[in-house]
Amino acid sequence: MLKNKTALVTGSTSGIGLGIAKALARQGVNIILNGFGDADSPKAEIAALGVKVDYHGADMSKPSDIEDMMKFAADRFGRVDILVNNAGIQHVARIEDFPVERWDAVLAINLTSAFHTTRLALPAMRAANWGRIINVASVHGLVASAEKSAYVAAKHGIVGLTKVTALENATTGVTCNAICPGWVLTPLVQKQVDAKAAALGLSNEEATKLLLGEKEPSMQFTTPDELGELAVFFCSPAGNNVRGVAWNMDGGWAAQ
Ligand code: NAD
């Protein structure tokens, strides 16, 4: 069904992005990876699934890097059929203590980069009358937590961008939707577990339980594989008329 399509997944050298890239590759989708982590082992894992894979190291906070990556994708694969805007960073501090440079970085990487990739990917998707744009937002695109002003603002922003992208393409074969995970145990979250353990003198296991217990009624992490399967659904024919949703996979977090 998706064989020989091409997906560009930003921030896919680890975590959720890599999980989504692998789920799409299992459907026969060629993959362009991006991110700052080691690219060799993700590339090998994806190639082993029998699809073509390439990597571009664009810094998603830099519009000129993003333009270069989109040109690279078009040169190597013809066009990007599936765009997954996933790259993201976190910074935790109260507003009055929030470093201005960190605010700018979170907004640039978690929100503005998706505007750039989307504006650059849309013309070829529209010409083909088929495309899927999947924005990895967060449950923090739907509800807030203290000390995450930049992240919550960026994630609410990307849910808004998702809706506008969906509306502007509603009569075409191009859809845009957002995925809103609760806690997923990736390097981004392990850092928050470590900070809790250090601040409260807890073991890793105790700090993990505390983190889950504060927000996630299921007391379970969502996995990158589960999120990958949701992305596959958005790309499937059954997803043809799913447009502008912000679909949470959060163990009941936003239901409270
Ligand atoms: P992660 O740290 O494992 O992955 C982030 C990826 O983004 C990495 O590949 C990293 O190299 C890349 N990256 C960071 N800065 C970059 C930059 N300037 N340019 C290019 N790549 C850059 O984190 P993750 O948890 O997998 O996060 C992926 C996305 O999922 C983020 O948008 C995050 O906000 C979102 N998310 C994560 C969770 C969670 O619990 N882990 C929950 C909800 C949403």
Structure description:
The chain is an alpha/beta fold and 256 residues long. The chain has two domains: 6-183 and 223-255, Rossmann fold; 185-221. The chain is 47% helix and 14% strand. It has eight helices and seven strands; from the N terminus they run βαβαβαβαβαβαααβ. It has helices at 15-25, 40-47, 63-77, 100-128, 149-168, 187-200, 204-215, 224-235, and strands at 6-9, 30-34, 53-56, 82-85, 131-136, 174-181, 246-249. It has a seven-stranded parallel sheet, sandwiched between helices. β2, α2 (40-47) and β3 form a beta-alpha-beta unit. The longest helix is centred in the middle third of the chain and has 29 residues, at 100-128. The mean pLDDT is 97. The site of nicotinamide-adenine-dinucleotide (NAD) has 29 residues, from α1, α4 and α6. Nicotinamide-adenine-dinucleotide binds at residues 11-17, 34-37, 59-61, 86-89, 109-110, 136, 138, 181, 183-184, 186-189.
Short description:
The chain is an alpha/beta fold. The protein is 47% helix and 14% strand.
Element-by-element helix/strand order: EHEHEHEHEHEHHHE
Count of DSSP-assigned helices: 8
CATH architectural label of the largest domain: 3-Layer(aba) Sandwich
Proportion of residues in β-strands: 5-15%
Report the helical percentage.
40-55%
What is the residue-averaged pLDDT? 97
The N- to C-terminal Cα distance equals: 37 Å
What class would the helix/strand composition place it in? alpha/beta
The tally of strands reads: 7
Provide the low-confidence segments as ranges: none
Task: Write down the CATH class of the largest domain.
Answer: Alpha Beta
Strand order of the largest sheet: 3-2-1-4-5-6-7
InterPro entries: 3-OHbutyrate_DH, KR_dom, NAD(P)-bd_dom_sf, Sc_DH/Rdtase_CS, SDR, SDR_fam
Family: Belongs to the short-chain dehydrogenases/reductases (SDR) family.
Protein name: 3-hydroxybutyrate dehydrogenase
Organism: Hydrogenophaga bisanensis
